[in-house]
Amino acid sequence: MHRNASVIRNVVKAMTPFRSDTIVLVVSNPVDLLTSIAQELAGLPKFQVFGSGTFLESVRIRGLLAEKAGVAASSIQLFVLGVHGDGQVVAWSSATINGIPLDKVLSPDTFGHQELAKECKERAETIFTAKGATPFGTGSVVASICASILFDKREVRPVSHFQPEFDCCFSLPVVLGRKGIMKTIEMPLGSDENAAIARSAHRLKSTIELTDKK
């Protein structure tokens, strides 16, 4: 963590000053910490500096749910939000299949929320153990983010970006376009989901303060 924080500081400082329309996308982990550092140092509008966040995890959880539900992953609307890693939160309360609430489509015994969220969280480790790296999943979401920006596609993606309430970056859905983050999407979340996101955000802010002292 401290090594990567030092690397991102050196890289961003070496790249400044940026052209005013530059968009900075942070992919390295811990992505929320490094995105927070990058946006602080870049001297760019906050909507032009963001990280890959929980986009890949959102793709994975939809794939896992699709297997259980017997529907195409593209028909599922479900996001992993918050601080990437142990603190990430699956937004089950707002999950839908083709716009229909999940609990109206699937019976409660189809799958377990906690078990599927745990499997999603551990998927990267499973792939790393088998292959030694996870480049294809990461490459696919980075390509998708870049395409959304370059072609002004206005797609909704969960990316790590600045949250003024917590003074750090973590993932919530945004609309991506040619100027970066065009707007954030306010999602109706359950009180437990909001509380979990807030707890992980406070921990992240404490971690950022520790790295600032190094």
From TrEMBL:
Keywords: NAD, Oxidoreductase. Residues 2-51 form the Lactate/malate dehydrogenase N-terminal domain. The keyword Ligase does not apply. Gene3D superfamilies: Lactate dehydrogenase/glycoside hydrolase, family 4, C-terminal, NAD(P)-binding Rossmann-like Domain. Pfam families: Ldh_1_C (PF02866), Ldh_1_N (PF00056). InterPro entries: L-lactate/malate_DH, Lactate/malate_DH_C, Lactate/malate_DH_N, Lactate_DH/Glyco_Ohase_4_C, NAD(P)-bd_dom_sf. Residues 54-210 form the Lactate/malate dehydrogenase C-terminal domain. The keyword NAD applies. Belongs to the LDH/MDH superfamily. This is L-lactate dehydrogenase. It comes from Podospora pseudocomata. The lineage of its organism: Eukaryota, Fungi, Dikarya, Ascomycota, Pezizomycotina.
